[in-house]
Amino acid sequence: MLRNLTIVWTSFKMALEELRSNKLRTFLSLLGITFGIFCIISVLSTISSMKLAVQNEIKALGNKTIYIDKWQYGGGPDYPWWKYIKRPIPRYDEMKELRLKVPDAANIAYNTHLTSSIDFEDNSLSGVMNYGITEDFKNIQPLVIEDGRYFQQVDFDRNANFIVMGYTIAEKLFDKAAKAVGKQVKLQGGRVGIVIGVIKKQGQSLIGGWDYDNAILVPYGFLRGMIKDDNAYPTILVQAGPHMPIEALKDELKGAMRSLRKLNPTQEDNFALNDIDTLSNFLNPVFAGMNIGGWAIAALSLIVGMFGVANIMFVTVRERTSQIGLKKAIGAKRGVIMTEFLLESAFLCIIGGLIGLLAVFILTQIISSLFSFKVFIPADIILMAVGICLFTGIVAGIVPAFIAARMDPVVAIRSK
Predict the structure, then answer these.
(1) Contacts of 394 (CB under 8 A, 6+ apart)
(2) Given 3-state DSSP classes, what are the helix, strand and coil percentages for the chain, each rounded to the nearest 5?
(3) What pTM did the predictor assign?
(4) How does pLDDT run across 15-60, given as a tens digit for each residue?
(5) Disulfide-capable partner of 352 in 11, 34, 191, 269 (CB 3.0 to 4.6 Å)?
(6) Which is it for strands 145-148 and 215-219: parallel, antiparallel or unpaired?
(7) 84 exposure class (CB count in 10 Å sphere: 0-12, 13-18, 19+)
């Protein structure tokens, strides 16, 4: 055991000595390893962080939730918008009927929204999103209140003119979000609303979800008084119970909606049942493509780096020929000589990988400060990178190590 540790320590010191004595040559040779590891860790870490952020945002949209809308969510060049635009919009009374027809649903909410201006004294904001919601909305999409409170049942019953305001809107209107609670603002048509709460700042969404920072929430009954036409984009949100599969909920909703709209068996659905959870499946191929691109670049860089390290090891073997001869003359076996050079090659690659890891860490700090999601480096990716460095080092050093191990001690000593 002690002997093995001595070999490892000696190989590590040799690698550091090579790096110290031939800085430029070693650095240029390790550049491929550094860049390859940088590509692998940066791409995989960014994708892993993005996937986690997207999954969290999908949960925020409503876990196990169906959105009943006139539009089928998605897009593309073949999107039949001309067919969907003729469909009727979901109605508030349909939401109430669904409560009776689909009793297994955990929560059913109605949401409609429109954009309007909002004024407070001399400050005015235009294009503010107004969400009119019903009681179960918070159960489907949990919200964290920074200041004040959320709506109570009595607020919905009275169609109160209360407002729960987004953080950014509160900052722009009142300079500080903490000053918003209790203030009266003017909405569309001169209607007066009272701010009772401010939503905690959420940041920009990656998938274009609900932007609560730049919106206000009001009871649906209050918003209904500001709607002048049917272009307020209403949606019915239905959340499955804890033991109800999402497909079972979709089947029940389909039958219930066809019954409510009195569609005969030969007629197509004039509504869409959008499953938010399928968004993650839609994005998986995108992340997979990014992974393949990152691995392709990394593989090319690692191959270049492998040849660089192999070149270093060939030069090292030539420079230490006499030392190899002396070791073999005093009894060092081929396996020991070969192990020393393989470990030295592996340590050189690990040093290059650590430089790449440091560069990725700096990059993650920059990306995290620029975007709304935090980029992190998972431990399994770091371990994988170390394994790649070890493998690359062994492959790069195996031929030089084999040559060193098979040297004739007498010839090697005379080469000095």
Answers:
(1) 342, 345, 346
(2) 60, 15, 25
(3) 0.66
(4) 556 556 666 666 666 777 788 788 778 877 877 777 777 766 666 6
(5) 34
(6) unpaired
(7) middle
Distances, alpha carbon 299 to alpha carbons 9, 37, 38, 291, 389, in Å? 29, 9, 11, 12, 12
Q: How far is it, in rounded angstroms, from Cα 414 to Cα 321?
A: 9
Please name the residue that has the structure tokens 């090659």. Answer: 345
Q: How far apart are the first and last CA of the chain?
A: 33
Taking the C-alpha atoms of residue 189 and residue 180, their distance in angstroms, rounded to an integer, is 21
**Cα–Cα distance list, 368 to 45, 141, 208, 214, 265 (Å):** 12, 25, 19, 21, 53
Alpha helical stretches, state H, 192-333: 220-224, 246-260, 278-319, 321-329
Looking up tokens 């980029």, which residue turns up? 375
Torsion, Cα 245 247 253 259, to 10 degrees, reads -130
Looking only at the bridges linking them, the beta strands covering 215-219 and 123-133 are parallel
Would you tell me how many other CB atoms lie within 10 Å of the CB of residue 48?
Answer: 18
And the tokens for 35?
């860049």
